[in-house]
Amino acid sequence: MGVVVAASSALADVLPVVSVDRPLLVARLLELDSMGALTTAHVRVGAQAASVTERTVWRWIKAAKDEGRTDRRPRPRLELSQEAWTVLGQAGGTVAALYRHLRATAPEGSTVPSLPTVHRMVKRDLEAGRELPSRQVADQARTRQRDRQALADLALERPQDGGAAAVPRIRPAPGEPVGPDPLAAWARTVATHEKTPAGELSGVPGVVLPAGGTVVGTQAVRQVAEALGAAVAVDGVCCVFGDAGRGKTVAVQVGLGAVEPSRRVLWVQAPVRSSVTELRRAVFDALALGEHGRFPHRSAQADARVLSSLAVPAVLVVDEAQRLPVPCLEYLQGLCDHPGARLALVLCGAGSERALRRLPQLASRVVAWQEVPRLPPAAVAETVSAFHPLWRVLTSQDLAWIDKRAARGTFRVWANLTTHLHTALAADFRTPLDRALLRGLFQRLGPPV
């Protein structure tokens, strides 16, 4: 008994200064388990370090083996519909009025979130940048919608009076010089293919942009290029991650443009619900080995041909790498570790860094971890003006307002908004370029939240 008490006391002296999160702990326990060295002592110490029970740690290990999941299972997120936000705006921001509306309109048998939950949902979206529409703005939007529908029903020509818009045209800030008509300036810019500001890059193969758009060499693009260069130089692994729509794939394509011509660049799209067989076939096709015969029926033959081809230096880019389960990651690790292979591996995708946690052996081989962040607010005006000439006619204040209301630093949203605005202005040149028009286009960028 004295020995047990002494051991527990010694352990208590160490563990209070040890803190570990679930993914790191599970990854380490799985590594020990793969070597056959996992014991109940490891689980007990890990449970105390994570401030959970031993039974909980065993459940974590089982979930990682069965589901490939080291994090907590995601819970469904409650969202407020556009109709709910309209009701909230008409109620002057009173959440209790919205809660009464939700209870009155809920289908029979369905559950309605509690009032504190609705308060948290509204607060969460407001802190994320959503603006609560005022009662006057909501009424004006509803009136404009009824008027547009009436005009469509009557098949009349759209009235051309300048006071149709609820918000005045976007104009330069006070003190700035007033230039020519924005639409006319934009039309001349597109027609003459005006040279773009410094920092722009020429067209990148494989990158699809809106008409007139150009890839911009942002700080994130340069950082990704540096990370890729470090990994390729030593035939290592590079992980490019970040939320969806931030431009990870484009940054990788730009960065790989500097790879020496003697090194092949191979692109593989990770299949949905990937299996090793599907990934092996994708790598086989990327190497163009199918030209010399059909895909072998035996995996050993396919691997032999792949490894023989990788004797020539190559860069293998796996896009959407977050889809890869542990067996697929082990297959890629095997390609990288083969003595005769000259291969640099690039894993790209939103969540690819979490996928690598499932296989610590491969994660330890990553030479560079590079996140692609949101576009900083201070760089929005310069970047989007270089991206497309359509945005050069607006002031930095207007561009900051658009980014706050809709894009929030996500480059894909800016590209989609450019396409919608280009289409709207091309359809009717007389359309006023004002905030009322932009608010209508914002609604096309995503479903109601």
Automatic annotation (TrEMBL):
UniProt-listed Pfam families: AAA_22
Bilayer-spanning residue ranges: none
Name of the protein in its database record: ORC1/DEAH AAA+ ATPase domain-containing protein
Sequence ranges assigned to domain ORC1/DEAH AAA+ ATPase in this UniProt record: 235-351
Entries under InterPro entries matching the protein: AAA_22, ExeA_AAA_ATPase_DNA-bind, P-loop_NTPase
Coiled-coil stretches noted in the UniProt entry, renumbered to this chain: none
Species the sequence originates in: Kitasatospora putterlickiae
Region (Disordered): 154-177
